[in-house]
Amino acid sequence: MASDSVDTRTVVQGKVHSAFYHTVRALLRNKFSLCGLIILGIAILLAVFAPWISPQNPYDLSQLDIMDGRLKPGTASMSSMIYWLGTDDQGRDLLSAILYGMRTSLLVGVSSALIALTIGAALGLTSAYAGGKTDALIMRVVDIQLSFPPILIALILLAVLGQGVDKIILALIVTQWAYYARTVRGSALLERRKSYVDAARSMALSNPRILFRHILPNCLPPLIVVATMRIAYAIMLEATLSFLGIGLPVTEPSLGLLIANGFDYLMSGDYWISVFPGVTLLVLIVAINLVGDALRDILNPRNKD
């Protein structure tokens, strides 16, 4: 019995590794997903190393000069510093502000999506495996959650909780977990009827082990696709909330807040204050969606021979 268990585990691990390498190879062969991966890799590196590569800490007041406000791209300051993307109305170097803002946007989007995925996956698995009243209760909560626009829920939560990175992460988690729960439940309902689950039950394995060691790995393909899309949506929703002035405070920059700062100056010709952060946000979301679309096609069982 122990030998059979070890052999089965080895086979499962081999299948997981094979599927992982197949997915990576397919992503690298797809020119659109490869382009998205390259852009994402560059964006992550720039965000992680922003404090070391930025010409200026745009939120250190001692480094700002109000006389340098709204300078055009390529203008040199009195201290011989060149503002390659110009400055905003507070005299902040826009290139540095974008790097710091991208750092915050990625942190908020990825962390909120991962935590929401963990919560939603656990509830979705529990709902599908337990069935009965437990399934009905969890799914009714999910239905109620999904019946409201995410931005409305986030607006209400932030109006109560206030501004801050931790507050907006919590708001994004609340708006996203239901999507993961419904996705995992649908996949887990199919997996629950398969013979390997019956075999695991006959071996008297615990329910948590059956759920997380056997059923969950087989639910990962659709979950990964949804997670990729929801990360892009979380970044976009955070940018929208910050643009409206209820997301992140001025001392904690994001791309949405940078766009909002220059919105009043668009008609006066100072386009760069909003346009450059807006283009950065657009490229970032498009890159994530390119990877997500490729993953959806690669992991779709109907596309397999």
From TrEMBL:
The keyword Cell wall biogenesis/degradation is assigned to this record: no
Q: Tell me which PROSITE patterns the record gives.
A: ABC_TM1 (PS50928)
| Ribonucleoprotein recorded as keyword | no
Q: Tell me, what's a Pfam family for it?
A: BPD_transp_1
Q: List each copy of the ABC transmembrane type-1 domain by range.
A: 102-292
**How does this protein lie in the membrane?**
Multi-pass membrane protein
Q: Taxonomically, which superkingdom?
A: Bacteria
List locations, semicolon-separated: Cell inner membrane; Cell membrane
Cite the InterPro entries for this sequence: BP-dependent_transpt_permease, MetI-like, MetI-like_sf, OppC_N
SUPFAM superfamilies assigned? MetI-like
- Classification via CDD domains: TM_PBP2 (cd06261)
Which stretches are transmembrane?
32-53, 106-129, 141-162, 271-292
Q: Which family does it belong to?
A: Belongs to the binding-protein-dependent transport system permease family.
The name of this protein is: ABC transporter permease
